[in-house]
Amino acid sequence: MPGVLGRIVQERAGDYAAASPELGPARPAARRFEAALSGPGLALIAEVKRASPSQGAIAPLDPATAARAYETGGAAAISVLTEPRHFDGNLQALHDVIGAVGLPVLRKDFVVHPAMLREAAEWGASAALLMVSVLGEATGAYLEMAHHLGLDALVEVHDEAELDVALKAEARIIGVNNRDLTTLNIDLAVSPRLIRLARQRGFAGVLVAESGYRTPDQIAEIRPLADAVLVGSSLAGSGDLGTAARQLMTP
C-alpha cells in the first residue's frame, strides 16, 4: 500500500499487533448514527480534527468543547480522530466527546484489527470507520464484527472498484472520500459520481460525501445527492466552530 496511507496502516498494525482479537459478547444494534443521517435534508458530520498529514497542525481543539460547539451549530453527528501520529488523536478524545454531547459519535481511525472495533464499542461510540482502501476483501468480515458489537459502520470508498466491495459487503452506510489517500489530492467530482453510481446499482442505504468541503456553494452541489456530508479541516480551523458549521450548511 503506497504513500501516506500505507505508512499509517503499517504503524497502526504495529500498535495493535499484540492485542486480542476477541470481540466479546454481542451487543444490540442501536443504529443511532444511521438514524441521525437518515432524516430530511443534508446532515452534517462535524469532525474533531487537530491535525492532518496534508495540513499539519490545524487547531489545538479541546475535544469536548469542540463537540459541544458543533452540536450547537446543528451537527447531526460528531466524528473523532483517534490516530495519534498524523492526526493528533487518541481514545481519550473519543471518550471526552461521547461524554460531552448527546449526538452519535463516529470513531475515525485506520481500522486494521478487531480490537479497534471492540474499543469503539466499549468507549461508547455509535459507529466506526471501515476503509475499503485498507481492508479490501476483508471489509465484509469487519462489517460483521462491527455489527456484532452493535456499531454502525461508515464504509469508505474512493473509486468504483472499492464501491463494488462495499456493495458486495452489504454496507448500510457508504462514505465517498474525495481525497486520494495515497497522494492526498482532492477531487470534489468523486463524491457526486460515485453516489450516483451507487444509486444506479440499487443501493438504498445512507450515502455520505467526505473531504474537501469548505463553502456553502460546494455543499449546495452535493445536497441533492448525499444524505450527509463529513467536514473536518475547514470547520476545525475556523476559530468559531458552531458558527462555521451553521454557515456552511445554510442553503
Write the layout of secondary structure elements.
Layout (H helix, E strand, L loop, with lengths): L2 H13 L16 H6 L5 E6 L2 E2 L3 E2 L5 H10 L4 E5 L2 H4 L3 H10 L4 E4 L5 H9 L4 E5 H4 L3 H10 L3 E6 L2 H9 L4 E5 L12 H11 L5 E5 L5 H7 L5 E4 L1 H4 L4 H8 L3
Parallel strand pairs: 1-4, 1-10, 4-5, 5-6, 6-7, 7-8, 8-9, 9-10
Antiparallel strand pairs: 2-3
Helix pairs in contact: 3-5, 3-13
Give your account of this protein's structure:
The structure is a single chain. The chain has 251 residues and is α/β, with parallel strands linked by helices. The protein has one domain: Aldolase class I (TIM Barrel). It has 13 helices and 10 strands. The strands form 2 sheets. It has an 8-stranded parallel barrel, surrounded by 6 helices. The protein is globular. The mean pLDDT is 95.
Largest sheet strand order: 1-4-5-6-7-8-9-10
Q: Report low-confidence residues grouped into runs of 5 or more.
A: none
Q: Can you tell me the CATH architecture?
A: Alpha-Beta Barrel
Beta-strand fraction estimate: 15-25%
List keywords for this structure.
251 residues; 42% helix; 10 strands; TIM Barrel; alpha/beta; 13 helices; globular
Briefly say what this structure is.
By secondary structure, this protein is of the alpha/beta class.
